[in-house]
Amino acid sequence: MLNVVESPWTIAALAGWLGLCFGSFSNVLIHRLPRNESVVRPRSHCPGCGKTVSWYDNIPVLSWILLRGRCRGCGTPISVRYLLVEVAGSGCFLAGWWFGGFSAAGLSAAIFLLLLLDIAIIDWQHMIIPHTLTLAGMIIGLLLGHFAGLGLDGAILGLLVGSGSILVVSYGYKFFRGVVGMGGGDVMLMGMVGAFLGIWGVLGTLFGGALLGSVYAVTAGRGTVDGSAKLPFGTFLSLAAAIVLLFGGTIFRWYLTLV
Ligand SMILES: [Zn+2]
Fold first, then answer.
1. Domain boundaries in the chain?
2. How big is the chain by its Cα radius of gyration, in Å?
């Protein structure tokens, strides 16, 4: 008989719960990093009355539901985004567990997906990608790359190719069009993606991100004739990177059956 502690359901529940807590912290990062505020101090407070949020009102998902999305003190509505990010954080950890199990590869995938989630939302809302997240991601990617099967050399190569490809595209764009196409945030983001996914994964992400961004630009009517409309490219790159991590192998095998 399988021990309760070793049961896959126990580990899944643990991964899901950890994901909720990290999702809760993601809310802090998403709110504060673009505003250049400290992510440790002060503790979470209500934007309406300024009261510090008690621990029992800060339990992921549960508190939001019990308080029906309002501050206990003054009744200021708390955006449903907080709830959704917590659930999405849980999804990241469950996906990481599904991908790599209870291992360094699973942990690496979970952290990678969580970073991508934070970056995607911040870039979508503010058109910036905080270096704090991408730099931390690069370091974690390099550290875990050895255990996640990529190897340190594979992670370093991916990082260089990821950053380098954006630099080339960006300079090429500047050379031909006279405008800066992509920012330093994208360079750092793709360095981080390369550290986690390696050279083939990062190139697949670049292709997928460009594809998703183009589809969005066309369908949302954001594409202008001279191509000057600003797109949160980091959001599309993040989405593409998550797809490449989780389904890249499947997509590649499907592609091979076509050719
Ligand atoms: Zn309040």
1. 1-100, 103-259
2. 20
CA–centroid distance, residue 27 to ligand 1 (Å): 17
Question: Which helix H or strand E contains 5, and what residues bound it?
Answer: none
Whole-angstrom CA distances from 38 to 144, 198, 231 are: 26, 32, 27
The Å distance, Cα 40 to ligand 1 centre, comes to 20
Q: How far is the CA of 54 from the centre of ligand 1 (A)?
A: 11
Residue whose tokens read 């991508």: 116
**Statement: residue 9 has pLDDT above 50:** yes
Does 8 sit behind a cis peptide bond, omega within 30 degrees of 0 on the bond before it?
no
Question: 121-146 pLDDT, tens per residue?
Answer: 999 999 999 999 999 999 999 999 87
- Centroid of ligand 1 to alpha carbon of 41 (angstroms): 18
Is the predicted pLDDT of residue 191 greater than 90, yes or no? yes
3-class SS shares of the chain: helix, strand, coil, % to 5: 70, 0, 30
Apex 121 CA angle, 118 and 126, nearest 5: 115
pLDDT band, residue 171 (cuts 50/70/90): confident
Mean pLDDT score across all residues of the chain: 89
- Tell me, in angstroms, the distance from the centre of ligand 1 to residue 73's CA: 5
pTM: 0.90
